[in-house]
Amino acid sequence: xxxxxxxxxxxxxxxxxxxxxxxxxxxxxxxxxxxxxxxxxxxxxxxxxxxxxxxxxxxxxxxxxxxxxxxxxxxxxxxxxxxxxxxxxxxxxxxxxxxxxxxxxxxxxxxxxxxxxxxxxxxxxxxxxxxxxxxxxxxxxxxxxxxxxxxxxxxxxxxxxxxxxxxxxxxxxxxxxxxxxxxxxxxxxxxxxxxxxxxxxxxxxxxxxxxxxxxxxxxxxxxxxxxxxxxxxxxxxxxxxxxxxxxxxxxxxxxxxxxxxxxxxxxxxxxxxxxxxxxxxxxxxxxxxxxxxxxxxxxxxxxxxxxxxxxxxxxxxxxxxxxxxxxxxxxxxxxxxxxxxxxxxxxxxxxxxxxxxxxxxxxxxxxxxxxxxxxxxxxxxxxxxxxxxxxxxxxxxxxxxxxxxxxxxxxxxxxxxxxxxxxxxxxxxxxxxxxxxxxxxxxxxxxxxxxxxxxxxxxxxxxxxxxxxxxxxxxxxxxxxxx
Length: 483
Ligand code: URQ
Ligand code: ZN
Ligand code: ZN
Known about the structure:
Blueprint: E1 2-6, E2 9-11, E3 16-18, E4 20-24, E5 27-32, E6 45-48, E7 53-56, E8 58-60, E9 68-69, E10 72-73, H1 78-87, E11 90-97, H2 105-116, E12 122-128, H3 134-147, E13 151-155, H4 166-179, E14 182-186, H5 190-202, H6 210-213, H7 217-234, E15 238-240, H8 246-257, E16 262-267, H9 268-272, H10 283-288, H11 298-310, E17 315-317, H12 325-328, H13 348-357, H14 364-378, E18 396-406, E19 425-435, E20 438-442, E21 445-446, H15 465-474
Helix pairs in contact: 3-4, 4-7, 7-8
This protein binds (2S)-3-(carbamoylamino)-2-methylpropanoic acid (URQ) and zinc ion (ZN) (2 copies).
């Protein structure tokens, strides 16, 4: 099966040029002007892309489809969630295996693999380290060597549930280093969050307005810096997920300026939404925005945009983790019981284009970098993913920079009854989404297929890893010989 994209302007993370693109059997076969070869025949599907941009499909490195969490299960499953992603131009997700404490890691891994078999687009998994013993130490090796996992997640929040303390961080980071894997962290000090939650409840603050008050920027900044320092001493690359405020951004910036291998992720929501949502008079509306880290005061959004522009933050994501109003109501009397999570997978690409490229904050090439290519490089699946190059997977979006869309829960494909970007009009949308060389979305029509998504292996020892090893060798400790 072949697909011929003609007349478009190709945008990669570092290059802009006019060329045609031929896809054959799910891969990019050739790129150039006036392509002609025997794979172009009467059965070839042709897309005229004049006036449009042709870009790598988005990669969302942070989603939680059908996550069991806080006594319920996220309402979006792997089929509906990846379909919504394809509708918005995202062609791959990296989701999370999150074992319960004491749950066998491999059992949890296979559980998530089973759930993801219904996916409509390609996917991979970070694996969370939520407890520690010799079996976890061993399972990490199995996951890296036999299952293509090269990233391990650590929740520094969620005390009493999946929180990793310093001992677990040190043990897991050391193990990740031995295996050539990258460590990722949800950086909030879970002890401080718990302490502040109790104080707020004692003061009678039980509504959603209590949520951001229990997790101020300092709580995130402390944890981000602590995780970064532990990674520095152990000698392992670290990726800070959902950097939401200037405090954690400064911790990342300091470390990167000192040459440490630290990567930062920012959510589309944290770039555009501020904490006024939590004082909305309607309880359901305020609760719908409860996620962690919370949305922040306006000054933090400006800082995060600068961090993205300056290259201190490398990727954008959504942390797509959906709970409908009846689920959020579980915290009606106590904000600490509101399931944490918001949606975004369908809107990320478009809100970032509109508020990033249309405003001049990002060039088109930088847009490709932060929505696709950088995540592929950091998690070691480039150029198979995140590129438009011969031999790469044919995950492609055809972008109409003039087409407008008003975002609404009434029209989105996400399986959730709320949209954090409700009413936002964006200019610049994907007219076509191509996944594995097939048109799966065109002009508003979604044609996804349950179960065609593939699990993507991510090899260990991403390119930057040997740079860390060389730095470590330079500082290798030496015993002093004494007579
Ligand atoms: O913390 C996370 O990333 C998961 C549990 C989704 N929920 C959230 O509030 N971010
Ligand atoms: Zn998180
Ligand atoms: Zn998350």
